[in-house]
Every structure is written in structure tokens, then in C-alpha cells.
Design a protein that fits this description.
The structure holds 2 protein chains of 2 kinds.
Chain A: H1 11-27, H2 30-37, H3 45-54, H4 73-85, H5 92-104, H6 109-120, E1 125-127, E2 143-145, E3 148-157, E4 164-169, E5 172-177, E6 183-187, E7 197-212, H7 213-252, E8 254-255, E9 258-259, H8 264-293, H9 298-324, H10 335-347, H11 352-362
Parallel strand pairs in A: 1-4
Antiparallel strand pairs in A: 2-3, 3-7, 4-5, 5-7, 6-7, 8-9
Chain B: H1 4-17, H2 25-34, H3 56-65, H4 77-90, H5 93-105, E1 110-113, E2 129-133, E3 136-144, E4 154-160, E5 171-177, E6 183-188, E7 197-208, E8 212-213, H6 219-232, H7 246-255, H8 262-290, H9 298-320, H10 345-351, H11 362-373
Parallel strand pairs in B: 1-4
Antiparallel strand pairs in B: 2-3, 3-7, 4-5, 5-8, 6-7
The chains are: A alpha+beta, B alpha+beta.
Chain lengths: ~375, ~400
């Protein structure tokens, strides 16, 4: 048996959480998030600037000598818990985790330069694959011809706010500047408008090579694996918000001359949800620790966390909506933002079912042979 | 006296004076008790040294390395886990001196006389009566789900001493002599075919007032100590991956490809994930405890494991197909302890049904989580201010 991972939070991690939480309490009220989703600019660029640049959180995964903060996935996971709790419309998972981890695994100078730019928070990057892509399941149809890329990728999360796209194409992984001719980003009407998707169209877009062949494949896989593993922390924060808000509401709301939270039928549902949230925390911390230290098989830990956390976040949001009754069905109440985020997250980076299939290989529980 | 090095020295002195290889088991255990190394957090003179509880591990490691016998804690779990902390907390000096040593050594087995046919989840409604008669009490009633009653020397008993006050206020806590002629123990056969538990009939049992624990009418408060310790003792040990009920299913899946179907595969993987995550939650809880910051997570562990055990063992029986139609043994036996792994899948399936009933039903535990962890209001109570004798039965 492998060594036991540290499933708790350190004092530094708790301090980081407080800092992020108080910033979000000030600057990322659910009503603001809702209003923003209907505006021309669904992403909160000012909030991102504070988080990524002023607080230095974009560079947590990047060593200091490569332009980052030299922290680990454990700290990034804490940031994601708080961002999930606020359904914050910032490209943290996509740029500071997935794109950053992908670049960390590339060896050349162009990648190093981009990595430092992303770590500074002043440049936003996005891995140009459909957001539903599970680690190891990338199929690109983008072609590389004489230093330029041609092709289309749909469903790319946060592409609309990205300065740089990391594009898997035939022959390798390339960087494309979204400001250049030949690269078009067209927003899609997304289920989750707090993390909007876009179609990336490349029509002779100038591209810089970041990695080739196996190195490129491995880098993309690692980027998506970190994304999947740490997404569980976002899902944890989201589920906790749903539970906390619902408990508070059921203590206030009276029907039949009693607080509705005193009805056993509702109490049992919330207690059951609490149990799942407690379990999600263990799974999410385990994944973050495994990604940070390499202990206890990161592939297994990430797949386990995603297989468990994704359905819990969806359930938490669905329970929150139902238990809020009519108010939960209104556009005005923020619970729908959480439901949409949770449902989108359950597809993002591979569904729970895909991750279970991955686990079947990892822990030797093979599928039946097809007759 | 209470640091690790001192305890290690003291343990070595014990081993030197009573070499395990040449010392009778019971004599060794008595010597260990008298040296204060039985449970180091207990007071001096009662098997302990008033040391921090965490230092017990130091003593246990030294003794294990020396091949010293232990007191077979599983056999005397009720005594160690429930009777002892209650006697320590509420007993007189004389009671502590009389009962704790033979309890810990294992010379005297204890059982718990709490549940009744009419008082399960609503334990405080119990109806076994204890009536004062001079310097003793006369007890009449029926207890149920009493493990070890057929081998027990003593029982911790709660009985109603005042039917005219609300139910929580009219209960008194006693130590019952299981050899009293008024005590009749009958095996209670379960759905597994065996009888782990007993019914205990009490007819005119005499209990001297000196065997009362705590004040008259304070029995409910005393019982809270017992019950709290029951919940603490559940789920203490770290288990390896696939160390629980999922283990035998995963093994059968790997070794017998002919049993595999796509439907079972998906269900197995889902349960594997849940079992592994529950195991990590246990790890996290233990890490919190080790840092001295116990969280409320413990309240949920039993709930989670009850459901998982039931679902996993249900899947196992189904996976086995033809074999799942068979059962290993319906013979009526009276086992000393539960053995989940020593029997076949059908036994696991049936026995785990009790996991969501024993030690607090899952429904009651969900209420406890909802009220004590989440702070949700309780249901309106109709029984709080009514005298016990006027309750509906």
C-alpha cells in the first residue's frame, strides 16, 4: 500500500482561503455574476486581474525560477474551492491549471516564455480542446501547414477571454495568438454562462511549435489530468455553497406554522447531502495532494475524485433548487447559476462514467469481454 | 512519569518482572493492570497513570514486540468500550476498585441491558421497572439485542424507577448480576441463522443499592456516556484499499471472468469508487483526530458504511449467480463475535442488514446529523412534558 496522503489543510492554505474568500465576498456577489452573464463581457476581467496578478494566484503551479509562485496543486485546489463557491466567472481552471500544467510539461524555450506569461496572470491561456475532453481522449482535426494552423475546435472553455490558445494539431502542440489574423473565436450560447464556451476557427493562423509527438501528447494529457483532479475542488466549493444556503433557507422559511427545516423528510435529504460533501472533501484533497506530491498514483486519484465529485455537485445543486421551492426556479435567485455550473462540470474533462472506465483499467477491474 | 520514554521504561520493567513466555496469561494481564499500563489515560490505581490517551500506542507497541498476550479486546468490547467509561465517570470508589480490574483483564465479561421490545430508537421510553425495597431494588422487565448475555458476569442496566415523571427523568442506571436467579437469557435467532444476540428476561431480580451507578433518576444522563463511547468506538482503525466489503467482490471479479456482465461492471465500479472515497474520509477523520481537531465527520461514518456494506454485499450475491442461490450454513450457533470475512457472500448480505439498525438506526443518525451538525430544528415533540405512564404504547 502506498503512503497516506495529507488530506487536511495547512495553516497557509487556510490563510489563502480566507484571502480569496473575502475578496470574492466583496467583488463577486451572486447578483453581480448573474448580471454579468447577460452582458457583453461574461468574464470578470477586473476580478481576474486582482486574483491572478495582484495576488499572484495564476502562478501557483509554476516554480519560482520559471516565473511562478512555487506552490502546488494543494493551494490551487483551495483557490478553486472558493471560486466554485462563488461560481466566479474567471478563467482560473482553464488558464492557471490546465494551460499552465500543459506548458509545464513542454521543454522548449517558446513554452517557457509562455509559461512565465501565464504565471504572471497578465496573459490568459486556454487549451484548445472541447471542454468535455477527458485526459487521454484528445482527437484533433487541426492541420499544421508551413507555420500556420487550419481547422476548427468547438466547445473551448474561456477561449473568448484567452490571449493565447494552446492547440493540439497534427505533428504537435502549437501556440496561437488570438489577436492575430487567421484566428477567430466565436462565443457559443452555453449552458453555464459563468464559464462560456466558444468555437475556435483557425484559417492559416500563425503558430509557434511548443512540443512535438509524444511530448505534446503527454503534456496535453497532464494538463487535462490536473484539470480533472482539481475540478473536484471546484465542485466541492460549489456543493458546499448549495448545502449551506439551503440549510440557512430551511431554518428561515416557515410553512404549516413551523420552519420547513424541522420536517424529517427534508432533514434526511440534507444530512445525506452533507455526508456526500464530507466524502467529496476527502476525495478532492486526496487528488490535490497526489497531483502535488506524486504520491498514491495521480491518475487514479484524479479519476477517483472526478468520478465521485461530479455527481455530488449536480445533486447538491438539484437538491438546493428543489428544497428552495418556487423561489429556486426563478431567474432572480442564484441557485440556477450553480445548477448550470454543476451540470456543465459533470461533463467537463470527462464524465463520471468515463473516469470510472479509466479506473477499471487502473485498478484491474476489467470490463466483460465482448462476445 | 507520563512521557513516552518513561512509559517505555515502565513497560520494559513489567516485561522483565513478568516474562510473557513463562507467565500465565491472566497473571500477566493483572500485573500489567497493576503497573498502570492497561489504559494509561485511566487514573493511577485503576489500571492507568493519568497519562494522555495517545501514549497508549507506545505501550502497546512495546508489548506487541515482546510477544505479550493482550486482553482479547473484541471478546470484551462492551466492557471496555461502554461499561468501563461509565463506571469511571459515575461509579463510587468502591465500584471502580471492584469492577474495573476483572473487566479489563477479561475475567468478567459485561453485557448491555438497554434496548427493549418497546424501546428501540426511543430508548428513553423503556419500561423495565426497578422498585426500591429497603437496601435493594427489585427489577422486572425484558431486554433485547443483548450480545454476550449468555457469557456475561455483569450487565449495565437502565430501568424505570419513577413512572410519574417525563420519560428521561425517571430512569436509573444499575449494574446487574447476570447470575441472579431472576435473570433468564434466551438466544435470539437472527435472519443469518445464528444467534449473536439474546433476549434477557428479568423477573424479581435483586440489585443492592450499592450497585447503582449515579443518582436515582439520573440514569439517562449516565447512559449518554455509555452511548457516546459506543459511537466513538466504531470505525477507529485505518483500512487498506479494498480492505472492506469491496475486497471479496473485487477478488471474485478478477478471478472469475465468466461472471462478468456490463451491468454488474458499472455497478461494481460505482461502489468501488464509493468504498474508496469512504475509506479516504476515514483517513481524513483520523488525521483530524491526530491533530487534536476532531470534526463532525465522525457522525457520518457509520451511516456511510452501513449503506455501502449493504449495497456491496447485495451486488456480491448477484454477481455469484448460481452460487448466490446457495447459503453456507443455516445452523443455529451462538458466535462470540461478528465475522464478516470468515463467511460467504450470503451471510455478508444478511448480516449487513443489521448495520443500519444496530448502534442507532440510520434514520435516527440522519436526524442527529441534521440537528447537531447542520443545526436544523427538531420535529415538534409530543413526549417531552408527559409523565412516562401516560405515554401511548
Amino acid at each position: 500500500m502506498t503512503t497516506q496522503s495529507d488530506l487536511l489543510y495547512t495553516e497557509e492554505e487556510e490563510a489563502l482561503r480566507s484571502a480569496v474568500r473575502s475578496l470574492l465576498a466583496d467583488r463577486c456577489d451572486p447578483a453581480d455574476v448573474l448580471a454579468r452573464t447577460e452582458s457583453e463581457q461574461p468574464h470578470d476581467r477586473e476580478l481576474w486581474k486582482t486574483l491572478a496578478d495582484s495576488m499572484g494566484l495564476a502562478g501557483l503551479l509554476v516554480p519560482e525560477d520559471r516565473g511562478g509562485q512555487g506552490a502546488t496543486h494543494r493551494e490551487a485546489a483551495v483557490v478553486l474551492e472558493e471560486l466554485g463557491r462563488a461560481v466566479a466567472p474567471v478563467p482560473y481552471l482553464t488558464s492557471a491549471v490546465i494551460a499552465t500544467e500543459t506548458l509545464l510539461a513542454c521543454t522548449g524555450d517558446p513554452a517557457a516564455e509562455l509559461l512565465a506569461a501565464l504565471a504572471s496572470g497578465r496573459t490568459v491561456g486556454a487549451l484548445a480542446v472541447p471542454f468535455a475532453t477527458a485526459p487521454g481522449a484528445v482527437h484533433t482535426r487541426v492541420r499544421h501547414e508551413g507555420g500556420a494552423l487550419r481547422g476548427e475546435v468547438t466547445g473551448v472553455a474561456d477561449a473568448a477571454v484567452a490571449d493565447i490558445l494552446l492547440v493540439p494539431a497534427d505533428g504537435g502542440l502549437f501556440a496561437v495568438d488570438t489577436g492575430r489574423d487567421g484566428a477567430t473565436v466565436t462565443p457559443l450560447t452555453s449552458l453555464d454562462r459563468t464559464r462560456p464556451l466558444a468555437t475556435v476557427t483557425l484559417d492559416g493562423a500563425p503558430a509557434r511549435l511548443l512540443a512535438e509527438g509524444a511530448e505534446a501528447d503527454a503534456a496535453v494529457r497532464l494538463g487535462l489530468r490536473s484539470g480533472a483532479g482539481l475540478l473536484a475542488s471546484e465542485q466541492l466549493g460549489l456543493a458546499e455553497w448549495c448545502l449551506t444556503q439551503t440549510v440557512a433557507y430551511l431554518k428561515e422559511r416557515h410553512q404549516f406554522n413551523r420552519p420547513v427545516g424541522s420536517f424529517q423528510a427534508l432533514k434526511h435529504r440534507l444530512a445525506d447531502l452533507w455526508l456526500r460533501v464530507v466524502n467529496t472533501r476527502a476525495a478532492a484533497r486526496h487528488a490535490a495532494d497526489a497531483l502535488a506530491t506524486g504520491s498514491d498514483e495521480p491518475n487514479l486519484a484524479a479519476a477517483l475524485a472526478q468520478a465521485y465529485a461530479a455527481p455530488v455537485a449536480v445533486r447538491a445543486a438539484e437538491e438546493a433548487l428543489q428544497l428552495h421551492g418556487g423561489i429556486g426556479m426563478t431567474w432572480e435567485h442564484p441557485v440556477h447559476l450553480y445548477l448550470k455550473r454543476a451540470k456543465a462540470d459533470s461533463i467537463a474533462l470527462g464524465t463520471a462514467g468515463r473516469h470510472r472506465t479509466e479506473l477499471a483499467d487502473l485498478v484491474d477491474l476489467p470490463a466483460p469481454a465482448t462476445p | 512519569m507520563t512521557d513516552a520514554a518513561a512509559l517505555r521504561r515502565r513497560t520494559q520493567d513489567l516485561l522483565a518482572a513478568h516474562p510473557p513466555a513463562t507467565t500465565d496469561r491472566t497473571d500477566f494481564l493483572k500485573a500489567r493492570f497493576d503497573a498502570g499500563l492497561a489504559w494509561v489515560h485511566y487514573p493511577e490505581g485503576l489500571g492507568g497513570l493519568g497519562a494522555p490517551r495517545t501514549l497508549q500506542a507506545v505501550v502497546d507497541a512495546e508489548l506487541e514486540a515482546a510477544g505479550a498476550p493482550d486482553n482479547d479486546p473484541r471478546r470484551i468490547g462492551i466492557g471496555l468500550g461502554m461499561a468501563a467509561p461509565t463506571i469511571l465517570g459515575f461509579g463510587t470508589d468502591e465500584q471502580k476498585r471492584r469492577f474495573l480490574r476483572p473487566l479489563w483483564v477479561g475475567e468478567e465479561v459485561w453485557c448491555q441491558l438497554f434496548s427493549e421490545p418497546g424501546a428501540g430508537s426511543d430508548l428513553a421510553a423503556l419500561g423495565t421497572r426497578a422498585v426500591r425495597d429497603g437496601e435493594s431494588w427489585a427489577v422486572d422487565g425484558q431486554k433485547v439485542w443483548t450480545s454476550s448475555a449468555h457469557v456475561a458476569r455483569w450487565g449495565i442496566l437502565i430501568a424505570r424507577t419513577d413512572p410519574d415523571v417525563p420519560k428521561h427523568r425517571g430512569i436509573t442506571y444499575f449494574i446487574c448480576d447476570m447470575t441472579d436467579p431472576g435473570v433468564e437469557v434466551r438466544p435470539l435467532r437472527q435472519i443469518t441463522g445464528e444467534a449473536e444476540f439474546n433476549e434477557v428476561f428479568l423477573s424479581g431480580v435483586r440489585i443492592p443499592d450499592t450497585r447503582r451507578l449515579g443518582a436515582v433518576g439520573e440514569g439517562w444522563k449516565v447512559a449518554q456516556t455509555t452511548l457516546m463511547n459506543e459511537r466513538v468506538s466504531i470505525g477507529g482503525m485505518r483500512i487498506p484499499r479494498e480492505g472492506g466489503m469491496i475486497g471479496p467482490v473485487a477478488e471474485a471479479w478478477r478471478e472469475r471472468p465468466e461472471l462478468r456482465t456490463h451491468d454488474l461492471h458499472q455497478r461494481l465500479l460505482t461502489l468501488w469508487v464509493e468504498a474508496e472515497v469512504a475509506r479516504l474520509t476515514g483517513d481524513r477523520l483520523r488525521q483530524q483526530l491526530a491533530q487534536g481537531q476532531p470534526g463532525p465527520e465522525g457522525s457520518g461514518m457509520k451511516l456511510g458504511f452501513a449503506r455501502l456494506n449493504q449495497e456491496i454485499s447485495g451486488l456480491e450475491v448477484e454477481l455469484l449467480g448460481d452460487e448466490g442461490l446457495l447459503y453456507d450454513d443455516w445452523t443455529m450457533r451462538r458466535p462470540d463475535q461478528v465475522d464478516f470475512t470468515g463467511r460467504e457472500a450470503g451471510y455478508r448480505y444478511l448480516r449487513s442488514k443489521g448495520n443500519s439498525i444496530e448502534g442507532g438506526t440510520s434514520e435516527v443518525l440522519l436526524n442527529i446529523v441534521a440537528e447537531r451538525v447542520l443545526g436544523l430544528p427538531s420535529e415538534p415533540r409530543t413526549d417531552k412534558d408527559v409523565a412516562w405512564k401516560d405515554l401511548t404504547r
